């Protein structure tokens, strides 16, 4: 649906900040996803970016970002995705990240590994930050922290990218296109599916401060596992 609407005129509205927007495609995508998921699991709870939380009658919950990378989508830049995670009793069991413009679907099932378009994927073998391609995102509420971390990582890594979709950044980290990713100020729907992809592909996920990752932890550090200590220390030294 997103791909079919990509070249159509868009209705764009700002949320709390100028840099945080929503389009008619976000809302249409979310409505379609929720309708189909509830048809299959009518007792499940829902947590979705645009419509928020709705309670359920079971331990199941779907965590949905109907369009991660809205600004990219609104400008015709094809780095965007849909992210859906299935949670049972507070534990993410299944994660899917679908990038329609790229023709890629990433799937992780807890304990069963991670796939891209049906083929197994794994994190990269890179063992030094100096050889690494890293990625990040900038939360509009704290550009100063973002800038310090970006500068420190850029001085140490081979390169750093900022592409504007945390869920797709995590999927790319899971398959070794990126060697590591960090970001602040994220919501559960940004990371629920992608974090499972990284761990099931053999990587490591935590908060940037080194604590255990939680969906409401507000920061994430995800990488191939070989860079985790060094990258975390570098970001914390930069003031993260």
UniProtKB/TrEMBL annotation:
GO BP of this protein: inositol metabolic process; phosphatidylinositol phosphate biosynthetic process; signal transduction
EC class name: hydrolase
Co-factor(s): Mg(2+)
Reactions that this protein is recorded to catalyse: a myo-inositol phosphate + H2O = myo-inositol + phosphate
Pfam families reported for this sequence: Inositol_P
GO terms for MF: inositol monophosphate 1-phosphatase activity; metal ion binding
UniProt entry keywords in alphabetical sequence: Hydrolase, Magnesium, Metal-binding
InterPro entries for this protein: IMPase, Inositol_monoP_metal-BS, Inositol_monophosphatase-like, Inositol_monophosphatase_CS, Inositol_monophosphatase_SuhB
EC number, UniProt record: 3.1.3.25
Family affiliation: Belongs to the inositol monophosphatase superfamily.
Name of the protein: inositol-phosphate phosphatase
Annotated source species: mine drainage metagenome
